[in-house]
Design goal:
single chain; 524 residues; alpha/beta; eleven-stranded mixed sheet; 18 helices; elongated
């Protein structure tokens, strides 16, 4: 059975994490400076080596070093090498890991985007901190967009549709129920405030394809997907909602695999308390449901937090693999946390777990994992293994080099702004104004004889396909000049674009509604 070496237990036995039990989730907890990040880094590189892709949020900026090998000139290299020798790691050597950098803002990695439609009104309502009435109005706005073929892709689309709803509140009320301008105005104000925080970068196209998180390199190692989250942490609700959306997307996109020999993906959720802070009970119930169900998709979720009582009991009860670093008993809450953490472990008669938690040194932890039968192992005081990659951030130059050779280079880096709700509503308004002028000048009967102003779905599709083909031909010409090869066929791409355009215009709103219903089923 495949397993990951964690460290050396106080009983003199190696402590391991079984790969077949890694999708039973886990917890890495401990006070600031006790070694949580180093433990996380060591786990991530071990999963990668075993061919398991990893997703991790880099909230402090120092996890990016996992892309580079450690160095004997590092100021603490002697401690790392000494620990490896103490643990009997005869094969210990510095090494790098295959890494893909991501960033919601597109500054330190590939942008991550989703569309307004894919996010849906439920998560948006939480993101915007809407009350029940305002959430109901947002639901109606989405319903109107679905029924009228209006694609909601970015903030501009939602802003335009809310403006239309404000001007046509009575029409919406007559069809769907009460829609007040006050509620629409409140949503608009929240949207403006949220846009000012840079959240608009998260919405648009090209939207993220979940399969891009599941890549292996040419040596069969799983890519470590590192999300630059230092700036994102300034908007904690966006951070938590984004990761919750990502879990829901993984749940919807991945097939059922039961309990595989190793996970499809391991997801590290740092600063996990932010997911649960101020979350209503109903939302916490659904987070618990997502965590429970996503196990069958082969995804392991590891929550990383300072205090284990930050995780609600319903979720904590599902975390079978635990690494508990030191906690400090400065307050009564700290004392409760220590007691609660000690009580979650399988008893070791030779260990006063509650006392040991306060005595653990940096790089030590209490470890208990699930065995092949699914039972938790007896807790052991453990010396945690040192990572082989760099402890500390990559430089800007190193990051740029890694980005340049990324398997996703060029796929997400440029935003695409195609025709959607904002453009359709603007065109309709312009058409209405122009038609009114023509009627006044020529009369209604004469105006009815002319062709329609707005192009049909088919006309738009052909136009888009032609542009893609032309762009592809230009790209091939440029490739010859630059000496680069392109595998794309511009004519085929044009045909595909036209077909995709038709499919999106016809089915997009329906498909979007279907996906949102799946997420909504989890979130409600």
């Amino acid at each position: 059975m495949g397993e990951i070496f964690l460290g050396l237990g106080g009983n003199g036995e190696d402590q391991h994490l079984a790969l077949s039990r890694a999708n039973r989730h886990g917890l890495i907890a401990g006070a600031t400076g006790t070694g949580k990040t180093v433990t996380l880094q060591g786990l991530a590189e071990s999963f990668s080596k075993e061919g398991v892709p990893v997703f991790v949020a880099d909230v402090k900026g120092d996890l990016s070093g996992i892309a580079m090998p450690g160095s004997p000139t590092f100021k603490h290299a002697d401690k790392l090498e000494g620990r490896a020798k103490e643990l009997g790691m005869d094969d210990y050597a510095y090494s790098d890991n295959p890494v893909i950098f991501w960033d919601l803002y597109g500054e330190q990695g590939h942008p991550i985007r989703t569309t307004i439609s894919e996010m849906g009104p439920l998560l948006l309502a939480r993101l915007l901190d809407l009350n029940d009435t305002q959430e109901g109005v947002l639901q109606i706005v989405f319903r109107h967009a679905d029924e009228n073929g209006l694609l909601l892709l970015d903030f501009g689309d939602l802003t335009a549709l809310l403006q239309w709803a404000n001007e046509n509140a009575s029409e919406l009320s007559g069809k769907y129920g009460n829609v007040s301008r006050q509620s629409v105005g409140a949503i608009q104000r929240q949207l403006l405030s949220f846009e000012a925080q840079g959240a608009d970068h998260f919405f648009g196209e090209p939207a993220l394809e979940i399969d891009d998180f599941l890549k292996l390199d040419e040596n069969g190692r799983g890519f470590v997907n590192v999300l630059a989250a230092d700036r994102l942490m300034r908007s904690p609700k966006l951070y938590a909602t984004f990761l919750l959306w990502l879990l829901a997307e993984l749940f919807e996109s991945l097939p059922e695999v039961g309990d595989p020999e190793k996970p499809s993906l391991v997801f590290f959720f740092d600063e996990a308390h932010l997911l649960f802070d101020d979350a209503p009970d109903a939302l916490q119930d659904k987070i618990e449901q997502v965590v429970r169900l996503i196990r069958s998709k082969g995804v392991g979720v590891f929550f990383v937090t300072q205090n284990p009582i930050d995780i609600p009991e319903e979720v904590a009860g599902q975390l079978g693999n635990r690494v508990q670093h030191a906690l400090r008993a400065f307050t009564k809450r700290d004392q409760r946390a220590i007691r609660a953490a000690a009580e979650t472990f399988r008893i070791n008669e030779e260990l006063d777990t509650e006392q040991v938690i306060t005595e653990l040194k940096v790089g030590e932890a209490l470890v208990s994992t699930l065995d092949e039968d699914g039972a938790p192992s007896v807790v052991q005081r453990t010396l945690i293994k040192p990572p082989r990659s760099r402890l500390g951030p990559v430089s800007d130059k190193e990051r740029a080099i890694i980005q340049s050779v990324s398997p996703l280079a060029g796929k997400y880096d440029e935003a695409v702004d195609r025709e959607s709700a904002e453009e359709v509503l603007l065109a309709k308004a312009e058409d209405a104004a122009a038609t009114a002028e023509e009627v006044a000048e020529q009369g209604e009967e004469e105006v009815r004889k002319r062709a329609r102003k707005s192009p049909s779905i088919w006309e738009k599709a052909i136009s888009r396909g032609t542009k893609v083909a032309a762009g592809g031909l230009a790209g091939m010409a440029a490739s010859k000049v630059l000496g680069k090869k392109s595998r794309a066929n511009p004519v085929a791409s044009g045909i595909t674009s036209a077909a995709g355009s038709i499919a999106t215009d016809l089915a997009g709103p329906i498909a979007g509604r279907f996906v949102r219903n799946l997420i909504g089923g989890l979130m409600r």
